[in-house]
Amino acid sequence: MKNTLKTLFAVAALGVASLANALSYNGEVELLDTDLDGDLFPGGGIFEANPVGGDSFYTFCLQYGVDISLPGTYDYSIQDKTGGLTANSNNAISKGTAILYTKFVFGSLFDPTDIANDNLAGMLQLAIWHLEGQGAFGAPGKDALGFNIFVDMVDDVAGYLDDYSGAAVKVLVLTDENGNNVQNQIIYVPDSGTTLALLGLGLAGLAVARRRR
Predict the structure, then answer these.
(1) Which stretches are transmembrane (predicted)?
(2) Residues 6+ apart with CB under 8 A from 59
């Protein structure tokens, strides 16, 4: 399975396919933990998602403090906002999160199959939680946001904390066998025009950050 995921990731990195290209908007998915989670912050991604009838892909948690049991099989629906009844539900993904996850899917952040990138995976999860308003997280073992290189990649993009209005990055809303909402995940859905625009914004923000230094 890991070799298959590595092949799929390489294809996505070339921009010619999506890891979710055959995925229905409703169905069943098996969710597995991986060895890449930053160690110091258990409970976050990277997670491996294996949807019935679709390609496997890597994902991250959108809601800090919402539980999920792994490995586990859940019903899913792909939506624009997070599901559930808690205070951090019914929220759209931020533009910054959409930029980072798109870059992750297309291979421009790091290789999610290489255990050497464990801390980077944890840092990206923390960046997503921050950008989704779940808390002020820095790098693993740090408190200051300035230590998070992924937040730094997007914090110069205009409106990076605003709601994402594109169609390429969505929420994988999960429910258990009793219909209870569990931890929502992020998913990439094909949309070439939006993808190119997001990648352009992300690269432009990174260029500004480099000039600033």
Answers:
(1) 187-209
(2) 31, 45, 46, 47, 48, 49, 172, 185, 186, 187
